[in-house]
Amino acid sequence: MIALSVNLNKIALIRNSRDTTNPSVVQHARMCIDAGADGITVHPRPDQRHIRAQDCFDLAGMLSVEFNIEGNPMTGPRKSDRPGVGDYPGFMALVKEIRPEQCTLVPDADAQLTSDHGFNLVRDGERVAPLVQELQALGIRTSLFMDPDPQQIRLAAQVGADRIELYTESYARACSNQTGVDAAFQTFVTAAEVAAEENLGLNAGHDLDLNNLPRFAALPGLQEVSIGHALTVDAIRMGLANAVAAYQRALGN
Asked: What are phi and psi of 40, to 5 degrees?
């Protein structure tokens, strides 16, 4: 079975548009779990534009499913200038205190609207390897956000990652444009085969939705998908519980 981890960033984004606690990230996590989600994902950024550091602690205190915290391990502490919003402690400090079941390292910069590329381990491998070791020493399964590039995937194994999360935007764009879908999917099949050769677990995410997910779920060795934006949009139309159930069906679960 492929695990569905629901990303709650967009729930927090709606909350942050007002000085309020509504919608509650914790309550929506509970709703997702009750509807059959296998995990919860958050991506706290230093500017706390959506998920805040306190949300991570609140979720850690109530989750009965796998918790996946993703983000850039190079980001340090950041002072908050907003009343009622605590300071950002730095990504590695946050994760090491919470100790989620999984941590996904992502090379996103502060100015990025969303994650839009995987690690370049030719350049950054020496910096990433000790961070992976730190997390693993705490019992945290560590995944690296990667493009479907065989060379880079082999380097992910060399730096000691447990898993990789394939950045799936190129496949999703091909499906949306209805152009080159077979070729795009084959790129990810090749990436999955390389991951298997390197004994890397396989996750995936970014712009996966109810239309493109059924085919992608056939990717060999796929263990987990993390989906937030599209699932949240679908939840507006069909309700959160129904959306979670629909994504589970799309995965063949």
From this structure: -125, 135
Under a CB-based contact definition with an 8 Å cutoff, are residues 47 and 76 in contact? Answer: no
Start-to-end Cα distance in the chain:
6
Alpha-carbon gap, residue 26 to 59, rounded angstroms: 6
Query: 196-233, pLDDT tens digit by residue?
Result: 999 999 999 999 999 999 999 999 999 999 999 999 99
116-135: b (≥16 Cβ within 10 Å) or e: eebbebeeebeebbebbebb
Q: From CA 230, how far away is CA 227, in angstroms rounded?
A: 7
* Region for 120 from its dihedrals, namely left if φ exceeds 0, alpha if ψ lies in -120 to 50, beta otherwise: beta
Cβ neighbour number for residue 185 with a 10 Å cutoff: 18
Which residues have a catalytic role annotated? 43, 70, 206
Structure token digits, residue 203: 């996750």
Query: pLDDT, tens digit, for every residue of 178-191?
Result: 999 999 999 999 99
What is the DSSP secondary-structure string of 157-215? HHTT-SEEEEE-HHHHHHHHHTSSHHHHHHHHHHHHHHHHHTT-EEEEESS--TTTHHH
Sequence-ordered list of residues with C-beta below 8 angstroms from that of 2, at least 6 positions apart, any chain: 217, 222, 223, 224, 225, 251, 252, 253
9-16 vs 25-34: helix axis angle to the nearest 10? 150
What is the set of domains in the chain, with CATH numbers? 3-250 (3.20.20.70)
Give the count of beta carbons closer than 10 Å to the beta carbon of residue 108. Answer: 19
Give the residues of the chain that fall short of pLDDT 50.
none
